[in-house]
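Sequence in, structure out. Go.
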Amino acid sequence: MTPQSEIKDPSSRRGTESPMVHQWRRARLGVVCLAAAVCCAAVVPAGAAPIWGEVVSIRQPDGTFIEVRVWGDEFYAVGETVDGFTVMRDTRTGYMTYATLSQDGSRLVSTGRPAGEFPPATGLQKHVRITKEAARVQARASREEFERAAFEGPFALSGRVAERGPTTGSVAGITLIIDFSDDVGTVAPTAIDNYCNLPGYSGYGNNGSVRDYFVDVSEGLLEYTNYVPAAYYRATNPKSYYTDPAVPYGQRARQLISEALDALDAAGFDFGLYDADGNGTIDALNCFYAGDRWNAWGEGLWPHASGMTWCADGVCTQRYQITNIGGGLTLGTFCHENGHMLMGWPDLYDYDGDSAGVGRF
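Output:
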């Protein structure tokens, strides 16, 4: 499902809905619960964070930024300049460049010309796409590689991955907030705390907080809140270090998260309070970092959900999700990824654009 479709119609509120709408809402909850049951066999941590036509700023090696419109997620996506020319990362130069199509239609080929130059090239076509089958193959390979990497390195997952966290009662997660010497946080920590926890929250045009969303869709069975620090953790390195596209995807994200966790631990934070079901696993770990993404999809700190092991106070992390704050706070991606962590909900959106997926669900 797309993140935006997971946020229900603001006009639908308990106490004002008709019996027919109430029955529909219970039927919808049944579909969600069935989806969670289907997902329980999963033992890998990846969950996608899709976007559909959003314009993002991507940093070039010379420090300049280009605006790219993106469709897809961290495992397979397509990017275009705002005027419609397809772009890709040139592995030789590190630049996002204009792309053409290989003769068999199975891959994009770099022109070597940095995106943003105009005119881009004589005869260059707009809206270039590889075949759907090639896209499926690339997405599958990318997902498998990303999932495998979570079980390697200094923060590797150990043992069997739990299918989900607690789904009823009072559950508390942790939301880290991080900024950088070269990209300072501009959204106040108190605003992020309200976004996560305040009943009736309406900041940044939202219809309720993250807590409100899970109370609502669970029919009051789950009250999910988050600890938000009173100040940003300032990362040890500049943001350009963590967003280096040459470093395997996810590696620097886990390093950044572990830094922030170490700082919390050194300040005397009790991580044992964040394991509601007593299974030794921190129920939910979110990471918000300041500013824009800077990366292209599948690189650096591009938003994603995965897993890592970090332990303190008798409990360990397992699943995490990381995303950028940008200029404001929106519920879609945050609720989507916490649905993966807490409920075990699978991704139900259409991947290659050949159907409506599960529609408004």
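Check: Residues 1-44 have pLDDT under 50 and may be disordered. The chain has two domains: 4-45+150-343, 52-148.
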